[in-house]
Amino acid sequence: MTRAKAGRRRQRGTIDRLPSGALRVRVYGGQDPVSGKRNTLVEVIEPGPRQEARAEAARTRLLNAVDEQRSPRTSATLDQLLDRYLETLDVGATTHRAYTRYLELHVRPFLGRAKAGAVGAEALDSLYAELRRCRDHCSGSAKRVDHRTSRDHECDDRCRPHRCRPLAPATIRHIHFVLNGAYSRGVRWRWVSVNPVQFVSPPAKPPPDPQPPSAAEAARLLNEAWRDLDWGALIWLFMTTGARRGELCALRWSNVDLDSGTLTIRRAIVQDGRALQEKDTKTHQQRRLALDAETVEVLRDHRERCEERARALGVELRPEAFVFSLAPDGSASLVPGSVTQRYSRMAVRLGLDTHLHNLRHYSATELIAAGVDVRTVAGRLGHSGGGVTTLRVYAAWVSEADQRAASGLGSRMPERPAGPVSDIERVRREPRSARERLAVELLERVESGAVSVGGHLPAVKTLATQKGLAPSTVHRAFELLREWGVLVGAPRERPKVGAFPRPVDDVGAVATDDGAHRRQIESEVGPAESYFSVVVRGPDGSRYPARVVAGSLEHPGTFRAHLLGIARVEDPRNTDAGDSWVGQYEIAVVPIVGKAEPIVFRWG
């Protein structure tokens, strides 16, 4: 009875003869854990000697492979293997966090509960195909919407129909390398008998495509960054050194030698969640960079600003202080993520499609264009390739070649602005919000004489209705005018227009418009050697519109008489025909063309 039942037992696997004469061996391999499809192992045996025996051997081999997957050496799941591997993985906190996130989103949902030994090459190929199809792993059948947030909200144009986007090839390669490392350890630990990842090919490595900003784009970025001098110094150093983001955040004043013009990169700042940690550089190597003369001046000016802020608050700027810090004493470093976000916002504001890491590409490109050898470039950027032995000895890079590299890059940097741009000048040139645009419009009304000194601007509600703005926006525009000195008065009183000096942007244009005034001055004092901006300040602290005058301080008597005439004209309340009233006034004379020093005339 037993033998009869055994004879009627269904044979596992089939061997079929094809029309070509070949034999096709088919063995059921279970269900694909990713796609859910039936998995069949197929092998074709070409005609030849002992064809039937070779086909039977192939069927036996495929059956053993299926049995090995169904009954692996251990019952441990892939989740358990990955957990154990991540415990032993020695990488940085940021890298470890990225690997963990990749596995949580793209591997564990499909293969995590499967036995580690039961995952074969075909299952991994199906996983990679799914990652190339849609990074969100949608079902592909039902219509869905990608909402801008997971919280309760009113949908707008940012909530759009779902569109499948593949995972980036570089991310799939990272997942492949993590799985390969986990299975390699699993073979060593005897959890599995074979590493299936070695039979799977990851996506091809994308070709290098550095996109550094052009020289014109770099100049625009720097000009925008210099509106905040500390931020401008940081972006300047990114371009000239090519250092990594975390390396410049970890830079301390003890690592900067302005006398010899060198900078030593020893540590880096990494962000682990909300906590900041200081660690070795990415290549675990220190390097010393030579600085060009202009970069040394940038750091020297930045140091003076830091020391001035520290003295103003009664704290000390110690050598261990961070070079770039929001703390007055430099005790805390910048947050690397915040630096990247601020740079991205600045690039978007300028209409540029670039990110912070591209400044490393910019530095390398400019150095190579300047004729610096690749080995020296690799040393400055801290790449571990390009002469590893020499790169480990950081002192060797303070050499003639490195100095040529620093000088070559410094000569190609855009010029720094002559001085900081005031807030009012920045808003005049490029208002960025409705509040600033309204403030500029109201300022132009005052300067044109549409609203006289002591008068009132339209009411907040009236302006809000006329301009289609919220009352809070108008209030904020008024506060900006208060900061500029255009509006004066107690906080709870209706503000009135105070005396406000008219800015002079183009000396030539002003002088041309006032040609008769120039000819009068030249007839009194001769040809002009310097132009001066003259501001009259009254006894109540009010200032009257600035005037541009030409004159020579070699004739102080004639120049003084002319200044008195300006003061008398600029004060509309003055009715005294003599000069006794002048003792109550202060006349500031600031040179705007020429080499004369600023002076202040007082009479009394």
Question: Quick gist of this model?
Answer:
By secondary structure, this protein is of the alpha+beta class.
User: Mean pLDDT across all residues, rounded?
Assistant: 77
| Strands, total number | 16
The CATH C-level class name of the largest domain: Mainly Alpha
Largest sheet: 4 strands, antiparallel
* Largest sheet strand order: 14-13-15-16
CATH architecture of the largest domain: Orthogonal Bundle
CATH topology-level name of the largest domain:
hpI Integrase, Chain A
Rg from Cα: 37 Å
**Category from helices, strands and their pairing:** alpha+beta
Provide keyphrases for this structure.
alpha+beta; single chain; disordered C terminus; 3-stranded antiparallel beta sheet; elongated; DNA polymerase, domain 1; 604 residues; hpI Integrase, Chain A
Explain what this protein looks like in three dimensions:
With 604 residues, this protein is of the alpha+beta class. The protein has five domains: 2-55, no CATH class; 78-137 and 164-199, Tyrosine recombinase, N-terminal domain (DNA polymerase, domain 1, Orthogonal Bundle); 215-411, Intergrase catalytic core (hpI Integrase, Chain A, Orthogonal Bundle), CATH 1.10.443; 430-497, Winged helix-like DNA-binding domain superfamily/Winged helix DNA-binding domain (Arc Repressor Mutant, subunit A, Orthogonal Bundle); 507-602, no CATH class. 44% of the residues lie in helices and 13% in strands. It is built from 23 helices and 16 strands. It has helices spanning 2-8, 51-70, 78-88, 93-106, 108-111, 121-133, 169-188, 215-225, 229-241, 245-249, 293-312, 336-349, 358-369, 374-381, 388-392, 400-411, 423-429, 434-448, 460-467, 471-484, 507-513, 515-525, 556-570, and strands at residues 14-17, 23-31, 38-45, 145-146, 160-161, 256-257, 262-265, 267-272, 275-280, 287-290, 487-488, 496-497, 530-537, 547-551, 586-593, 599-602. It has a four-stranded antiparallel β-sheet. Strand 11 (487-488) and strand 12 form a beta hairpin. Helix 13 (358-369) runs antiparallel to helix 14 (374-381). The radius of gyration is 37 Å and the shape is elongated. The model is unreliable at 1-8, 387-400, 501-528, 569-583 and 592-604 (pLDDT under 50).
